[in-house]
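Final report, Chapter 2: Outcomes

The project's central promise was a pipeline that accepts a single protein chain and returns its three-dimensional structure in a standardized token representation, suitable for archiving and comparison. That pipeline is now operational. To close this chapter, we reproduce one record exactly as it appears in the project archive, with the input sequence first and the structure output second.
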Amino acid sequence: MKYGKNYRAIAEKREAGKLYDIKEAVSILKENRAAQFDETVEIHFHLGIDPKKTDQLVRGTTIFPNSLGRAKRIAVVTGSKSSEAKEAGADLVGGEELIAEIKEGKCSPGVHFDILLATPDIMPKLATVAKILGPKGMMPNPKNETVTSKVKDTVLALKKGSKASFKTDDSGNIHQSVGKISMPEKELTENIHSFIDTVQRLKPESMKGRLIVSATLATTMGPGFRLSL
């Protein structure tokens, strides 16, 4: 793979085999931007789990101490709390008619909304669009708090950009945005520490050894810096 001039220039500043302190890695990324746009800062974990064992999969929801720096389009499917969802600022609100639009392709996940919330009373109705939402990772689930009766609080937290759901991929890794490169160094560092702590607390009881084997911090277009935990 051929990398651009900016990418190579930043990569050359990495010390071979060095594990970087979080604050130092953030500082390097902020001082050496790889693109003209406001890149996302991402953290990548390689976990010591066996991804083939369902009892070792890691998933959860976290609320970052600072904004992730991006607005999310939120849709709420509810049979009882439409006014509450609208008051909180949800972008799309509806009941069975919204489910029908998703089924017909008039309202598409990832195109018209980024997150779908549902109240418990309407969850059975969503079974008809599970095959559409599931592959996109947008099927509401109580485990990541996208099935909730606390519609107002959840929408407000999501609109703030500080709440995020995450889970391991097929290789036993986790990839998560922790903010934008334009954010203050202190806020990015706080978000990173918060997310590491959240994942560490989710260590499966059935696994032995370290949960986070390695962690790498990178921007959208830049090289990664291995972190010292």
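Archive annotation: The chain has seven helices and nine strands.
This record, like all others produced under the grant, will remain available to the consortium after the project formally closes.
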